[in-house]
Design goal:
- This protein is mainly beta.
- Helices cover 11% and strands 33% of the residues.
- The longest helix is centred in the N-terminal third of the chain and has 9 residues.
């Protein structure tokens, strides 16, 4: 659990018995600036120290979101990697990111604008509209039976898994088909455009240990 303590302009994050402090825009070395962000389970991006996080206070400019998320990757630096596991570098600016679940959150399915059958639907993510998309593969959807959260493959450089926003997940869940174990186990198929698609559940291997326990639970 996170606890946030404010000391003038210094942000202190206390997790368990460990404390971490930072200042937005700090310069740990010459000509380097560091900023800290948070992504909620709806895919909204905030400055990490924003007190009230909602649609009003999140970043909404699509050009900025496209620039920010296309540079998003796993934080392989030693700095803040445990508390801010993702990084969006911009020149000599380091943007550290933590999130509620996954940094990539899919919100809409976008169909191709023309009738070209070779172009399939895509998932739009993190408020970027058609500027931030990932190919939609219905057979690769994966739902955790206890939490009800739905996941889909995402960019490999951020772990290969994206969360499906709750509003879209509710729509998709109506078309899941379950096996003999019922809804106590992950779905085995998905109805897509009138056809039943068998789910590969290949995302299991990319899930956390706790999530895999939930997938195996019956």
């Amino acid at each position: 659990m996170w606890y946030i303590i404010r000391r003038s302009s210094v942000q202190v994050l206390r997790r368990a018995s460990r404390a971490l402090s930072y200042v937005q825009g700090q310069a740990p070395e010459p000509k380097v600036r560091e900023y800290f962000y948070y992504i909620d389970h709806q895919g909204q991006l905030f400055m990490d120290d924003t007190r009230i996080k909602n649609f009003v206070t999140c970043f909404k400019d699509k050009k900025f979101l496209e620039f920010f998320f296309k540079r998003l990757k796993i934080n392989n630096m030693t700095r803040y990697s445990e508390d801010f596991p993702y990084l969006s570098p911009c020149g000599r600016e380091r943007n550290f990111i933590r999130c509620d679940d996954r940094p990539i959150v899919f919100s809409h399915i976008l169909e191709p604008a023309d009738s070209d059958d070779s172009v399939g639907p895509v998932l739009s993510y993190n408020g970027g509209g058609d500027k931030l998309t990932f190919p939609f593969s219905p057979d690769k959807l994966c739902m955790l039976p206890r939490s009800g959260r739905v996941y889909h493959p995402g960019p490999a450089k951020v772990g290969g898994v994206g969360l499906v926003k709750s509003s879209l997940a509710i729509e998709l869940s109506r078309d899941f088909r379950f096996g003999d174990e019922g809804e106590y186990a992950p779905p085995v198929a998905f109805m897509w455009k009138g056809q039943e698609v068998q789910l590969t559940n290949e995302l299991w291997e990319l899930m956390t240990d706790e999530e895999r326990k939930e997938l195996r639970a019956t």
